[in-house]
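As noted in the main text, all predictions were made from sequence alone. Below is one such record, for Androgen-induced 1.
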Amino acid sequence: VIQAVFFGICVLTDLSSLLTRGSGNQEQERQLKKLISLRDWTLAVLAFPVGVFVVTVFWIIYAYDREMIYPKLLDNFIPGWLNHGMHTTVLPFILIEMRTSHHQYPSRSSGLAAICTFSVGYLLWVCWIHHVTGMWVYPFLEHIGSGGRIIFFGSTTILMNFLYLLGEVLNSYIWDTQRSMEEEKEKPKVE
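Prediction:
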C-alpha cells in the first residue's frame, strides 16, 4: 500500500509539474512545491526504508523456511507474479525512482523520528491484531518466544533507522556525483 500511494504521488507530481510549467500562476507553483515535498518525505521516511526492509527480510525468511513467512497454502490464492509484485519489484522500482528524480530528505532528526514512529506504530498494530485474533499476521512470530519477539521488534526498529540513513546516503551519493559530473562538463578546458 505504501508503494502504491508513493508512486501515485509521483505520478500526480509529474502531471502537476507538466501542467503548471511556465504558467506563471504562483498559487499553482506553491501547491506543486507542497506536492514535491510530500513526495520527497514519503520516499525518505516510508517508501525507501519500508520497501528495502520488506524485500530483504521477506526473502531471507523465505529462503530459511518458506512456511514461516509465506506458507505454500497461499500459492492457491496468490499467484507467483503477485508475490513478486509485493515482495521483489518494490526494490528496483524504488531505486529507479531515486535515480531519476532528485529527492530532498527531511532533517535527519525529523526523518528518524518519523520512521521510528511508523515502525513502533506498525509493530503495535501487529501486536494488537494478535491480541484480538490470537493469530500472528506473520507466521514466523508464532515460532519465537516473547523474548525473541521483543528482540526481533527492537532489531526491526533499529534496521528501519539504518535503512533511512542508507537511503539518505544513497540519494546524496547519486545526486552529488551527478552534480559534480555536470559541473566538470561545464568547466572550460585549458590546454
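The CA atoms of residues 78 and 158 lie 31 Å apart. The mean pLDDT is 90. These features were considered when defining construct boundaries for the mutagenesis experiments described in Section 2.9.
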